[in-house]
Amino acid sequence: MAEFLGEVRSAHPEAVALANAMVTIVPGLPAGRIVEVAGKIDSRMIVVGSRGRTGLDAILLGSVAERVVQLSRVPVVVVKASPPENTA
Known about the structure:
The chain is of the alpha+beta class and 88 residues long. It contains four helices and two strands. Helices cover 41% and strands 11% of the residues.
């Protein structure tokens, strides 16, 4: 993740917000830990990705992004993943 963030920073030096972006790995259940860490570092916003699962997958697997939205006291931006390319 740190390597990816470095590549994004290099590709977009004009994006000032990237200078403050951090990679942090913490153990625990994802949604609660994301909100907890955001509170500890006094984040003003949480950006979280979503695969956009629906139906039975969403019921069985749940949605970390949805739970973060429910738990967070700061704004949350959910970024939907691009659909997979058709390789057929």
